[in-house]
Amino acid sequence: PVFTQLLSCIPRTVIDSTVKEYGVNRYCKRFMGYDHPVTMLYAGFFGAQSIRELVTGLQAYGVNKVNHLGLKHFPRRSTLSDANKRRDEQFFGALYHKLYDYYYGLPDSRKGFSIEKDLFIIDSTTVHLFNSVMRGAGSPSASGKKKGGAKAHVLVNAKHDIPAFVV
């Protein structure tokens, strides 16, 4: 399956080293550090909109296919919800950066640096939260409009069209 091929591009050693570095498996019985990124990738790949849809989709995917993904158990909704709340987002950020370094390396560590091949683009985007997501929140300004949002600063590798760093 295509999803299994996608997971084969992620070395298990990179995930395991990040899990050990951040102590993600502490106090875990079944839903370990490797299972969480695989489950979140499944949610993104198959377009799951809720935890219920994600867990039901994994169960419908089948026991044999889930074993090929490296998952030994189906996560329950409460277990996945607790893991999302308890595990720090820095674990996923560090995992992304380790995978980026694994495949692309640092731009200044390669010989033959040229502006045409190694161009990086910096973008800053504001995500307006109070327009549609959180209609009742925010403080009104003098004009009467509610203000609020999140700012994302992104460094994009122009050659590969993927974010190299996100804050």
Q: How many β strands by DSSP?
A: 5
Q: How far is the first residue's CA from the last residue's CA? A: 33 Å
What is the number of helical segments per DSSP (H or I, 4+ residues)? 7
Major beta-sheet overview: 3 strands, antiparallel
Q: Indicate the radius of gyration in whole angstroms.
A: 19 Å
* Quaternary structure annotation: single chain
Q: Explain this structure to me?
A:
With 167 residues, this protein is α+β, with helices and mostly antiparallel strands. The chain is 44% helix and 16% strand. It has seven helices and five strands; from the N terminus they run H-H-H-H-H-H-H-E-E-E-E-E. The strands form two sheets. It has a three-stranded antiparallel β-sheet with strand order 1-4-5, with no helix packed on it. A two-stranded antiparallel ribbon has the order 2-3. Helix 2 (12-22) runs antiparallel to helix 7. It is globular and about 50 Å long.
Topology diagram in text:
Blueprint: H1 2-8, H2 12-22, H3 35-46, H4 51-61, H5 63-69, H6 77-86, H7 89-103, E1 120-128, E2 139-140, E3 146-147, E4 149-157, E5 162-166
Antiparallel strand pairs: 1-4, 2-3, 4-5
Helix pairs in contact: 2-7, 4-5
Provide a brief overview of the structure.
The chain has 167 residues and is α+β, with helices and mostly antiparallel strands. The protein contains seven helices and five strands. The radius of gyration is 19 Å and the shape is globular.
Descriptive key words:
167 residues; alpha+beta; single chain; 3-stranded antiparallel beta sheet
